[in-house]
Every structure is written in structure tokens, then in C-alpha cells.
Fold these 2 entries.
Entry 1:
Amino acid sequence: MPFGRWAAVSHPELDEITVDDVLHALADPTRRAIVRLLQAEGDRPCGTFGLPVAASTLSHHFRALRKGGIIRQYDEGRQRMNTLRTDELDKKFPGLVAAVLAAGN
Amino acid sequence: MPFGRWAAVSHPELDEITVDDVLHALADPTRRAIVRLLQAEGDRPCGTFGLPVAASTLSHHFRALRKGGIIRQYDEGRQRMNTLRTDELDKKFPGLVAAVLAAGN
């Protein structure tokens, strides 16, 4: 478990993450859009995704992705950053995230 | 839309089924067990899956699979039969169901 920069929010350990968690986390087009943008452009702060949803809704989506083991969040200055855990997840569920993202928006 | 033997319950058309529907339907180990048994042994009636859950719970799971486009149900005599729609789904979401089932129980 990393210390320091992950301390602000809790993240499930890889061995705690179930298939169900991953599927629930990805069963939403806004959340898949977040994952795609992180894949394409790397880590970025919550406020910079340019998605047409309210801040509170977006906050809910980031939380769902975090609880589902899809992203890690860490604080950098005043910004909450997001980074993908898909390399980690691929060890446990090879190809799952890619298959879901390939299935459509 | 087939007539007759599908008439007892409603099923979404293929073009109505979303990625989210499929993921929600498969985000449960009992529902994945139902799909696996249908894949392995073909169509079978609701009461013959041998799963350790209450009849009302099982009924909920069949409904979730039906609404998510994973199975079709039809009545045969007094039995409600279940058949997979995964060939159909694969045309719309190639490899998605297989990837989810491969990810774990």
C-alpha cells in the first residue's frame, strides 16, 4: 500500500477487487469516457475532463471508478489527480477493461 | 421479433441493448453461473440450475439477464425455458460476454 500521496482517499487493494466491482464501475458512459481520456492523455485533475455533467455527478463517477479499482486518486497541491490502475487490473482480469471499452461508448 | 413462444415475457430488441445493460446483467456471480451452465449444456428450465439461492432471488436474476439481453425466456408446457442470446449480442458487442466470463467467477 503506497503512503503519502494516496493517503487522502481510500483505495481497494487489488486482491479485494471483484469482477462485479469492475463491471459496475464501467457500466456508465461518463465513467468510460473518463477512463478513455486517462488512457489517451495520462493523469489529470478532476476538474479538467470537460464532460457535460454537474460537478457533484462527476464526483460520484470518480468515486465509483476509485471504489471499483479502475483509478487511483492523489492530491497534488490543491488538485485531486486521477491515474489509471488498468495495468494492475490487467494482471488480475486480463483483457477485461479493454473488452468493455471496445464494446462501445 | 419472434412470435408465439416468446410472447409470455418481453425482451429488448438487439438495438435497444446498451453496453451498460450487458455489464449490469453480468455483474453478479449467480447470473454468470447461469450463463455458463446455458453455454455448457444448452437451454434449460428455470428450476433446474441447482444454484444455492432462493427461488425469488433466482427469479430476480433471470429477469436481470432477460432485461440485459443475455437470455431469452419461453414457455414450454408448464416450464419457463432459458436460452442464450450471446450469438446475437456478439454481433453488437464482439467478445464482450466472453471477456467477462473469462475474468472470473
Entry 2:
Amino acid sequence: MSSDNKRMWIRDLQPGTKIEESYVVRSKDVRQRRGGGPYLAATLGDKTGEVAALVWENVEEIGKLLDAGVVVTVKGQVQRYNNRLQVVIRRVAKVPQNQIDETLYVRSSSEDVDILWQRLTTLIEEVQNQHLRQLLFRVISEPEVADLLRVAPAARGMHHAFRTGLLEHTVSMATMGRQLAAHYSLDADLVVAGCVLHDLGKIWELDISSSIEYTDEGRLLGHLTLEVLFVDRLIAEMDAFPDEIRRQLLHILLAHHGRYEYGSPRRPKTPEALLVHMVDLLDSQMAGMLEAINADGDSEAAWSPYSKILDRFIYRRKL
Amino acid sequence: MSSDNKRMWIRDLQPGTKIEESYVVRSKDVRQRRGGGPYLAATLGDKTGEVAALVWENVEEIGKLLDAGVVVTVKGQVQRYNNRLQVVIRRVAKVPQNQIDETLYVRSSSEDVDILWQRLTTLIEEVQNQHLRQLLFRVISEPEVADLLRVAPAARGMHHAFRTGLLEHTVSMATMGRQLAAHYSLDADLVVAGCVLHDLGKIWELDISSSIEYTDEGRLLGHLTLEVLFVDRLIAEMDAFPDEIRRQLLHILLAHHGRYEYGSPRRPKTPEALLVHMVDLLDSQMAGMLEAINADGDSEAAWSPYSKILDRFIYRRKL
Amino acid sequence: MSSDNKRMWIRDLQPGTKIEESYVVRSKDVRQRRGGGPYLAATLGDKTGEVAALVWENVEEIGKLLDAGVVVTVKGQVQRYNNRLQVVIRRVAKVPQNQIDETLYVRSSSEDVDILWQRLTTLIEEVQNQHLRQLLFRVISEPEVADLLRVAPAARGMHHAFRTGLLEHTVSMATMGRQLAAHYSLDADLVVAGCVLHDLGKIWELDISSSIEYTDEGRLLGHLTLEVLFVDRLIAEMDAFPDEIRRQLLHILLAHHGRYEYGSPRRPKTPEALLVHMVDLLDSQMAGMLEAINADGDSEAAWSPYSKILDRFIYRRKL
Amino acid sequence: MSSDNKRMWIRDLQPGTKIEESYVVRSKDVRQRRGGGPYLAATLGDKTGEVAALVWENVEEIGKLLDAGVVVTVKGQVQRYNNRLQVVIRRVAKVPQNQIDETLYVRSSSEDVDILWQRLTTLIEEVQNQHLRQLLFRVISEPEVADLLRVAPAARGMHHAFRTGLLEHTVSMATMGRQLAAHYSLDADLVVAGCVLHDLGKIWELDISSSIEYTDEGRLLGHLTLEVLFVDRLIAEMDAFPDEIRRQLLHILLAHHGRYEYGSPRRPKTPEALLVHMVDLLDSQMAGMLEAINADGDSEAAWSPYSKILDRFIYRRKL
Amino acid sequence: MSSDNKRMWIRDLQPGTKIEESYVVRSKDVRQRRGGGPYLAATLGDKTGEVAALVWENVEEIGKLLDAGVVVTVKGQVQRYNNRLQVVIRRVAKVPQNQIDETLYVRSSSEDVDILWQRLTTLIEEVQNQHLRQLLFRVISEPEVADLLRVAPAARGMHHAFRTGLLEHTVSMATMGRQLAAHYSLDADLVVAGCVLHDLGKIWELDISSSIEYTDEGRLLGHLTLEVLFVDRLIAEMDAFPDEIRRQLLHILLAHHGRYEYGSPRRPKTPEALLVHMVDLLDSQMAGMLEAINADGDSEAAWSPYSKILDRFIYRRKL
Amino acid sequence: MSSDNKRMWIRDLQPGTKIEESYVVRSKDVRQRRGGGPYLAATLGDKTGEVAALVWENVEEIGKLLDAGVVVTVKGQVQRYNNRLQVVIRRVAKVPQNQIDETLYVRSSSEDVDILWQRLTTLIEEVQNQHLRQLLFRVISEPEVADLLRVAPAARGMHHAFRTGLLEHTVSMATMGRQLAAHYSLDADLVVAGCVLHDLGKIWELDISSSIEYTDEGRLLGHLTLEVLFVDRLIAEMDAFPDEIRRQLLHILLAHHGRYEYGSPRRPKTPEALLVHMVDLLDSQMAGMLEAINADGDSEAAWSPYSKILDRFIYRRKL
């Protein structure tokens, strides 16, 4: 396996190149070769993208090594068919678990996780209300949160569906939330606290290893309830946390989807809850739109690929 | 004030009767008399019904005593106008708080609260799973629950909107839930636990004094979240409550409205959750329909008054 | 063709086995072999399940015998590709129509048809109202009904979509309907009659031979109208069937889908109609959920395959 | 009571006029006079409109004679208050049942019923298909149909909600249906038959005496099912009525509301069924709009009163 | 009529006060006095609020002067009935049209119109793109726009439904739009132009004299089309306005309601269109919520009056 | 390339035929041949239909010539596989642009374009109102309109999705509109003008070369706005076009989709606007249904292929 800065990133592959590099297997399919016997069609990935791959020889042997989620070193050659690249695989070797640097293989935020964390900390420091500030620091100091919030995605597929996507989304929202709370003379502390905590439950709802999947807990209880239970437990452990703040804060979390149909058991009934909901809506739709615009490298096409979150194509010609 | 068994219940009033009896004031309105000066239009109630009342003399004086929610002794005469009875009030006296027996004035379940409580206890005793049985007993042993569950209504207006309505609804559901769990070979313990706890949060969501109103907590957090927080806290205090039971139970509570649009943040994903939801739907719609059928005493009309919960009129002719 | 108790049921096939057995052809597709000429991809079925099958040789000849809906004796060998079994067919012979025992090939209720019929008869015997009891017996004594009700499915794909599914669904509903009518002090006879007749029209709406398809009559008129027309004709032939019973019964049939959007031209306006609707909803959703839970043999997966009727995955871990 | 051509029609009343004329009582309300005792507020109507009326003296006596639905001779004077006319009643006498000409009191089609009936007959005569033509003639020859179809309204309140409204709507639709069937080369006979029969059940669904109300049968079964049962019974009595025509015709009736949400248990699946549905939609919406435009006499206002069926105001300025 | 700073503003009225002041008549109703003859019930308003008023004497004479929309000088006395103030009117005189300062009588933005206009001008000056900047200046230089945009409301009733409400809404949106365009690296010029023009058509859609009403043009064409036609005409008159800018700008206007159901014939397909829509949604919902919170002076109630735009009550307790 | 009347139309191809003919390439796909190397799967079309085609030899060379939208001369042989025809291509030559007669290759109205144009002209001549008649003639005299309206389709896929489909739809609607305006005594001139102009914007919204695609302008602005801008510009150039006509006409265009959800920013508020909307709905749904009925040649099947516009299968058995 090559060192990081000499890696053959998937986005850099060229037709004709012979490769020997490690990738994660995103999917594998055994198909029927017409002249008898099976062949394999797989998808290989790293954090820069995905490429199709085919195995014509040693199918049975190689098939045992290729499995969705596994990291393997692949030897083969890149070809172009039907305007798309594909790798014809000749040899495969499993990479020992302790040699795997997971960050190489998963799609990830384009922003630096440490800078994002720093911005989050600053936003919390600026909270004036001591109860809320103290609560937020306790939250991000919980070891499980401190670990998971650095890597968790914000969703499985709609927007920010990549490593550190949740932190990126959280910081973006809290930054805007502060500005807009000032615009409307609202309680900026409540708004920032609501933004920071609104999707926290996703660190338990989603599991990100090689792909993003829901956990059992996530499917049965949902991130909204998971974070409400967690925050309420922390509050119970704090000294004299005012009940009025507790219920307004929990209300913001319960109402942040804005509508019953979107899974919120409450609708926003305070200006701060309305603002957190609107900023969430804005940031998720805008991210979904910008991700569609940047979804493929073809800078000439006026229209993006179909955006599922927005249910439309996006026009990407700039003035 | 007359003793209970000689009370002049509102459903027994006749035109021409002179009365002197205590009632709760459900509403009061000061209106403009055409020849100058105001008069009062009020509604008086007890647990058997409501009647209109008017004050033509001593308006200012009497007006100070009549206030929504207050229990007063009324002296006056019953008249019939426009096919409806009304009381012309001549004198009013406030009843001292310590002499008020609230149960006389609020609409109440037609079932006996002690018998309902006994049936609830029996249903819990029959739960085989020790964790669930123990949890349920702890729940109903909490002093606040033991007090409030005996009086709380199940809703503000749709069905079981009266004193002890929640307990009546809960026992009805748990009884059917046990039968139907057997029909489908499901986990009857989970179903009974789900039925018992599914609306528990309403004891904090609704306030029943003379009328039924939402509490601030109820509006901001909702009964569903209130009971999930409460049950989860009790579970945390128990020894070795299995996590699998916890999450299936909480899931039932979160999913019992069945659909996002109805305020559930999860949809039923286990057969037990589906059954609790369906039994809830059946019991609330059936109660709403039967309440409409019995809503007025006119046994000759083929059709009930309009039922708001069902958005239709009900046919009440029996075979 | 092997005798019944020695049949090679599809659920018992193993890789490597050589088979010679009769199956129904569920689908056939002619595909293009890359090195020239076509090959055949088919699906074979019996009442225990389905398996893929391929024909590489004598394609034209065998292709004439394989047709969707036909029962054939197949000679070939079982292989495993891509974690699934498939049969490579070498020879095929049509089974003469008079030697076909249809019950071997279609998916079927796991309950015994005679026992279900007995339970149905008992439920009808227990109807107290003589008009309704007599009507129900006339219904199930009509030769067409007596024949078709033993085999008809309850749906094409959502729930009870198999031989005798309609009878299983009908008996399940009537059994619960009786219990719940007692719980609410409703007219149990009307409820049982409504349950027995509510989907009767499906015997004409659906055609079950090798697969389940809608009939022209079914598509143009629908089971609801078909049964209303049929029941009304029987009533017209009876002596002095009370008009009040007739219209309440027909109302139950017209309203059993509960909502206009679900194809009911009336919404339930009597407690008995509401109950029949709710029991139908419960039994169809619960059956759909339990069928999803049992949909594949992999007992380890926590989540079922996707359930179309419920639009979700089902959690199938038991306590 | 005055003779017909000298009647004091309500639309001709003027302030100051003394009247002595017969009207139907549309509503009566006993209200509270401030200085003691009740007074009566009523609405009087005839086929030309409605007017408010008040009784200040002899309230009890007159109140016994005034009842919704009753025809009475009224003596009194017309006044203008608040820009509206009202009648101050001084004396009332009941009109003997056998002297009542109902047609004077109910809102009625502006078209002549005999001419409409003649147009209907002509449309049926032009049906080429002998089975359909014969069926339609049998339908309108049934004494009950011949009587009721001349007077029935097409609805309670949305459009054509007046005496003979159903016949007016039916003839309008059949006329357009014939034209449009030719435009699209469809089967004009089926279309005309569908138009003639599509709302026939309303003669049993609605009861028109002094006001339009649903019958019990109408509420429980609905006009759509009532006419399908009726037509199917007539067909069963005919010789050799082709089954293909029967099911296409019944399908048109079942599908004429076009959508499940509008109470149709089938959606249009033939071009003829689609056309009948669309012509029904056009005629009911257009009639609703034109009725709104003509709803009050104020020819200067650019906008109509609010139209309930269209949920909007209508612009009535012509070019 | 008193001078402006000594006016008896409606929000300052006290029971017992004798008044002589000018107000606008918002509504008038002639009602029936029981002892004979009519009386008048009216609503008087100025820019600080509304108050009920009654006329018992000289009804006919005064009735001729009181008409909705007219400004009159009223002489009378303030009373309190049923917890509300009302004015008993004794004399009324019409105020000559040329002495009326309309700004005294209509609800108006709490922000100064000149400052708002200055902020609008500054926002336009900061637009970098010369075509857009020039277009915006031409728009606000059109005499009709310059006049109407200073006074027009943003709606009839939902939010900003008062004098200068449109300008307040426009400046608020453009200010936020600039900030958020920077947050997402979008084209701030397009966003600001979209914000400034998105509701411009309301100056022709709504008519604000004493109350806010739709114009005929507004009802038939709508503000969205009115502004698109207007902007497109101005663009046609400009030199070499780039077509790409034209269509992206018009797209923003057409899409600013975000959804078809909300009356937009296009959905946002560029990031700038999405942002303008989201900022519009935020500003209108937030304004609606804040207006509900401030809707009555009772600062003690935890919950606002019902907010129609949000379909809920708002919690207004601050931390 | 053969001459027109000897062309080998696609609907006339037979298995075994050797062909040498020009077709348009509707799609091309490079696929993987199992024994190594790629092959091509394409779809060829002309105005009579489509056929699959395969290239096994000279794949690279031929692949460069085959591209979606290109017209080529193809040499090869027709085969039947899996009950469908396919062409095995051996040679391909590009047809020079100047030798291409586009009308040979696109699906086209079955009606003659000149006759349709003549009918359109007649309809306009019969318009009595001189302003409207003059406007309509100016519209169809604009060179761009005169060219495009002869070829434009009415949609991409729902109905009339073929060359000259828009003209066919327009003439059909205007013809019915005239008849129905007379039926309801409406302003036939406005109705005809509305029908002629209602979809005119589609000539700029859709681009029809070899396939039908949306233009950028069409996606961003939509046909409804495009035609409103165009018509308003023409009106501005005319002498004294009455404003009342202008706004009623523009209203018809804005409202012709009938509902917000279908993309109309206004709902019909005049009888003429309602009629144009209903006639549009009728003609598009009826055309969609009739196209489904005629969608394949199999005259024996009782049911059509699935109709996307109607979301159902259509019954096509005639009486």
C-alpha cells in the first residue's frame, strides 16, 4: 500500500494506468458469464470517489476476499468503457485491520475537523447564559460525544452524508443562528444551544464505518428522542438548572423539524424554536443543492444531476 | 347547599322550579341591555350537564361573584325559552373552598374509579415479565401518578374528555390489548405495558380543575415526550432493566399515534407497537362515536349531533 | 413426476442435487447470449417458494414449452451462484392438464382449509338474528361461493396474497369482531355478518390460477360493489328481510375501507361499521407485518425485508 | 292567499308595503327581549327568495304557528333596517295542507320542467343501441322515477340545489356529452346513458319538501350505490342485456366522481367513463360559478359573494 | 381636531374620559333596539388601535355620517363594559378631505419610512453588478414605485399587514439575504435584487386607504406576475441587459413562494432563488410570530392570541 | 438512402429482412461482451416507431458514428429475439446535415399540419371582438410563432408528446371551447383566444429536434410565464387594446392549470377561465387515455399498457 501523499486516489485514475492500491469495497455482485461460470462486478471507493471494478479470473478465490465494507489492496488495470472508467482486477489482498486508516476511505467533509471543533468551542464560549454555556460544555466533554461528533455524518443520503458532516452542519447552523437571532432581537444563547444540540442524537442514530447505516436504536427511537433523553439526563445532574430554560430548550429540540409530517412531535411555539427550525431547513436544503451542483466534474452542463432532496434538477450556470 | 342525594342536578331541572343549589360557573359574559346598563349571561354546570343562566338585577354585585371556575350557590327560577331551559338568577353566594366537593361539578367517567383502578392492578399483576411488571407497579406507585391518574381526562375534547377518562381509556385498551396479543401470538406483556403507559404523560399535559386545559409543559413538550422522559428515568433507577426491553417499550410509546402527521416521531416497527397503536385508534374513535350517540337525550332522532372527532353525523337506530 | 410426499419441494433444494420434478413456470425471459444466440431465464415455483432457472441448450425447443402459468416437469441440476440457488435445466416436458394438482404449485394459507371452513360455519351458527344467520348460510351455500371462497386470496400482493388467504382473513376478522363487539356492547350479529361479507366480492375480483390477477369485472366494478350487488340480490329473494337490517348491513360493506381515499364510497356511520373497518385495518396491517417478519429464513437479521404495505422495515427481535 | 299572478313575491317587496301573503317558514328563533319576555326572529321564503321577519307582539301565540317548513299566511309591514328589508309580523294563519301549492315556495330551476323532460326524451330516442335505449326508457317510465326526477335537486347546497335541479343538470350534461363523444369518436350511446343515470340515485338520496335534506338511505348508502342497485335490477329483468354493456355502464356510474377522495369506488378506466366524469365536473363547477355570479342583485360589484363550491370569489365584469 | 402630539390616541383611552377627537370608521352596523328603533354599533380606529363605539341617540342623522373608511370627529364618553372599553357617541362631524392626515389613522410600521428608504438605497448601492444595480435604481425611481413602496403593506392579514409593511419586509430580507449569500458564497447581487423585487407587485395588488383590500388587477393577475411584467418591461428598455441575468432574476421572482401550492409557477432551481425563498419564509413567519406575541398588551399571559399564519398559539415567556 | 415512398419504415420491418436505410439514433449504450471487449446496444427510430439494434463488430469505429440525436444510414439485418425485433448492424454512415429531412424521424401528429393550421385560422376569423381577433392574428403572424407552432409538441411525455402535438391540442381545444361557450352563454371570443394562447409558451419551453427536451428558458421560466410576457408585449404595441380585455385574457393564461399545485399562480375566477381550464384538462386526459389505448398493436388485450398521466390501465374493449 502506497503512502498517503502518493496514493492513487480514485479521482486521479486514468485509462491505461496499472494500479496497486488499497480501497474499500462498497458493493460486490456475482454475475453470470455467458460462456459458463460467474464473474464479479464490484464498486471500489476511497474518500475521493468511487469506481467500477470487474474480476474475470480467479473469481471464486478473489470473491472470498471482496466483501462490502472490507478494505483490500487491489492489483489491476484501468480501462475506459462507455465513457466511464473501470478497473479490471487481477489480484486482491486483504489489508490487516490494524493497518487500516479509515479516514482514507470514507467521503468526508471538505473542512478540517479541528478547525470546525475550534469554531464550535468558540460559539459555546460566547454563550452568555451560564446554565446553557455550562450545559453545552458538559455535552461536548462527554467522551462519547467528543469522539463521535468529530466523525458522524448528518444524514444517510440527503445532505452532509459524509464523515464529519454533522459537525460541519452544526457549526454552519450555529453561526447563522447567532447572526439571525441578533437580526430579530431573540435570545441568541437559546438559539445557539438549540443549533448545537438539534441533531446531536445522530451520533447514536447513524453508524459510519465504511458506509452510513442506521443503528437499531436509531430506527426504534430516532435522533430527536435520543438527544432529548441525553440532554435531560445531563440537566438533571446539574445544579439548579432553571426549569424554564430546560423546557424551552427541550421544546426547540422536539420542534426542530418544524412539522409533524417531518417527524417533530411538536411544532415551533417560540421565536427561538422557529428560528432553529428555519436555519436547519435552510442549511440542509442549501447543502443538498450545492452538493448536487458539485456532484460531477462536468463543468459544462447547465443542469446538475437529479437532486433527490429537492426533487429537481439544479441550474448551475453562474453569472 | 343540599346534601348530595337531594341535590338539584342540572339534568333534572324543570321549567318553573325554584332552585337554591351550588354549581360551578363555566363561563360568564357581560352584555349590553338595550335600555341602558349591562346584564349577565352565564353558564352553570355540575357533573350531569350545563344550563344557561341570566342576571337582570344587581348585575354589578353578582358579577363580582360569578367567575369562570368558581363554585357558587345560586338562588333563582328555571324558565323555558326557545325550547331550552335557563335559570334567572336572583342571588349568588360563594361556596367556601373547604366546603367544595369538586367531584360534584365536573363531568366524570360513568365507571367507578376504584373498580377501574382494581382492574388496572389486575392487568399489571398478570404481566409475566418481571421487569415490565415491576416497572408498571413502580409507575402507579409514584405518588403523583397515583393521584393524578385517578382524575385525569384522556383529552380536551375529542373522546374521554372528562374526569377519570384517562384511566377508563387505559383499562379498556389494556383489556383489549391482552386479548388481541393472544389472537396474534404477540408478546402480551409488552402490549399491556404499552397500553398502560401510552398516554400517561397526559396527567402532566392536561390540567383538570373546573375545565380541562393544557399546561405550559404540555404544550411545549407534549404527553408523549413527558411519559418517555418519566419512564426512562424510572428504568434508569431499576436494577438491570434489559436494554432490549427498554427500547422496545419506549418505541411503543413514541409510535403509538401511528403516523408522523398525528404527532408520533416514530411509526410502529414492531407488531406490539402496531397493536398498541391500532387499539388506541379503535378505542378513541369508538368512544368518540358512542359519546356522540349518547350526546343528547332525544332518543327519537335517527342521527346524532355532529361528531367532531369523526367529522360526521352518526346513525343511532338499533336493530 | 414424484408422488406428493416425496416431492422435491423448492424450499428443500440443495446445491448439486439433480432433480426431476414438476413446477409451475412463473415467468420466462429470452435473453441474448453474448457469443451468439439466445438463452432462457425463467422462474419456477411451487407452493413452498420460487427458484431461478436457466436454459443454455435446446433453447428454441424448450422455450416453446416454458410459458408463464404452465406446469412442466423439469430435469436438471441445482447450482449456487451469488449466494442464491439456480436450476440449470436440461430437459422439460409439459404435464397433461388432467394430471395437474394445482394445490402443489400455488402459495397457500398455512391453516387447513377445512378447519377454517368449520370455524366460519360455527361463527355463523352463533349469529342470533335469524335474518342475518339465514342470509349468511345462503351466501356460503351458493355453489360459486362455496367453491371460490375456499381458494380465493385476499389480495394481489399486500397481505393474505395466497390461496385460501381470503378465508383465513375472514375467519380471523369475524373471531375478533365478535370479541370486540362484546367489549363495546355492540350488535355482534351485524359485526360478524359484516366481517364475513366485507371482502366476499374478491372471489370475483381476483383470479387465482398459477398467479393472482385481477379479472376484468374486478377492475371495472371492484369487490365492494360486486358483493353489494350479490348480497342485495340474495336479500331480495328472502322472505321479509327487514329493510333496516338490509341498509345497515350494506352500509357496513360500503364503508369497510373507512375512508374515501381507500375506495369506500361511504365512511362508517354506525358503531358496527366502524368496528368492521377497524378490525379489517388491524388484520390486514398485522398480517402484512407478520408476513414481512417471516419473509426470509434468515433468523439472525434484526430487520425484515422492506414491507410494501407498511412502507417500512420491521424489527423482528423478540424479547 | 292571493292568486298566483298577483302574489307579493319576496323579490318584489318594498319598504313600507303592508302585506298579507303566504310564505314558507324557513327558520324560527326565539330570542330574549331585554325588557323582559321573548320575541321571534324568523325567515320567510318563497321561490323568489328569502326575507327576515320579526314578531314583537303575541309572541307565544304566533310562535306556535311558525315552524320551520310550515306554510303560513302572514299579515304585517315591510321595513328597511341596516340596508336590508324585514317584515314586522302582526298576524299569522296556517294554510291548510290541501290548499298549498308547493311550487310557490321552493327555489326552482329557471327552466320549464316539461321542456326539460322533452329534451331528455329526445336525447334517449337518439340512442342507437337498442339495449341502452330500452333501458333508459324503462328507467324514466318507472313511476317513482317519473315523479321524483321532475322535482329532485342535484345537491343540497353546492350547485343545482333547487327543485328540478337534477333534471336540469342531467339534460345539460347529456347534451354536452353527445357533442363531445362525437369530437373524440367515442360511443355516444354509452356516454348519454351514463349522463342520464349518473346522479339518478339522488332522487332517493335527497328529500325536497320545503328544504333539501338527506334521507337515511341516502346517508347510509349514497346516490351512487342506490342507482347502481336500481339499474342492475332493471337490467336483470330485461331480455339478453349484454354483459359487456352492463359492466361498462355500471363502471361509468361507479367512476363518475373521478377520484376516490370524491367518493367514487372506481376511477374512470374507459374513455366514456372519463368523459362522463369530466362533463359532470364541468357542469357542476360552471353552475356553481354562474350561481355565485347571479347570487345577489347588486350588478355593480365586480366580485361575487364567496362561492363555497369553488372556494373563491368570482369576477363578474363582462367585456 | 387636536394637534398630533396632544391627540387622544386609542391606546391611551381610559374609562370615564370625555373625548372629542378624529378617528377613522372601520366598520358600522345598524342593529335593532328592543324597545323599537335602531341603534348603531361601530368600530373606530387610529394607527394605535381600535375601539368599539355605540350610538343610542340621533341614530338616523349620525348614521349618515358614519361609514366604513370615513374620518370623523367624534364627541362622546369612554365606558368599560365586560372588561372592554367602548365609546358612547353623542355627536359626529365629518372631517374635510383636505384636512385629513391619513398617517394618523392606519396601522403603520414602527420603523421610520425615511430610514427604511435610506437603508434600501444603501443596499442597492452596494450591488456590484452594474446591470442589476442600474435596474434596481430605475425601479425605485419610477414615480409610481417611489410613491407606493413607501406606504404599501406586505399582506392583507398574515404579516406586515400595515402601512409601510412591504418596505420594512423588503429591507429586512435584503439585509439578511446579503449576510447569508456571503455565508454560502453565492451571488449576493442576485440575492439582494431578488429580495428587493420579490414582492414589488404588491404595490399594485393591494390597495391601502383606510383598510387593506385586493385590487381587481391583484386578484386576477397576482403580485408575482405584476412584478415580472414590470421588471421585464424595464429590462427591455435598458441597454444590453444580459439575457442570462434576466432569466435568473425573473426565475427568482417566479420561484420565491418556493412551492406550487403556495402559488409559485416555478420552484427554486438556483441557490440564489432558494435563498430568497427561504429568507422570505423566515421573515414572514417570524414577523407573524412576533406580531402575535405583541398582539395584546396583557404581558402576564404565557400564551399569545391564536396566530392564524402559524395556526397555533405562541409561548411568550422570556428567559 | 431510399426515397420517401420506398422507405423501410420501422413499423414495416420483418424478421430476416436485410436493410439499408436512414434512421435517427435515439439512444446508445456501450456494454461489456463477456468474452472480452465491448459491444453496442442502440435504439433506432423514425416517425413510425422504434427498434433495438446491436453492433457486434467494428464496435469502436461504429461507436464513433452512433450518437443520440444523429441521423445515420444503417446496413444490417432484422432478427426476432424474445418476441421482439432487433437489427444487427454491420455498417453505419452519417447522413450529411443538409440531406436530412427531419420530418421522417420524429413521431408526429396523425393530422395534417396544413389542415390544422387552416382550422386554426378559421377559428380566429370567427372571433367577433376585433381586439382579440387582431391580437390572435398578430400572434400567429410572428415569424417565430408561425414556424414553431407548426412543429412543437404539447408536452415531453404525458400527451400530445410529438411533432405538431401542440397545434393539434390547440385546435381541438378551441373547437370544443367555442361549442361549450355557446352552451353556457359565455364570451366565446375570450374562450377561443384563451384556448389558442394557453400553451403557446411551449414553443419556447420545449425543444424538438430528434427528441423532446426542455430548454433552459423553459425550465427557469415555464411556458405559462413565457406566453404571458409575449402576449403582454404584443398588446403593448397595439392601439388602444382595452385594459379590461387584457387582464381577463392574461388571467385565463395564468389560471389555465386550474390549481396552484399544477403550477398555476392564479385559480380560475371567471367563467371563461374556468372553461378554458376544464377543456384543457379534458383534452389532455382524453388524449393521454386514447394514446394508451393505441399504444401497442396487440388488439386482443383487454387492457392497455400502464398510462402514466392517468396512473392506471385502460380498458379498451369496445361494445
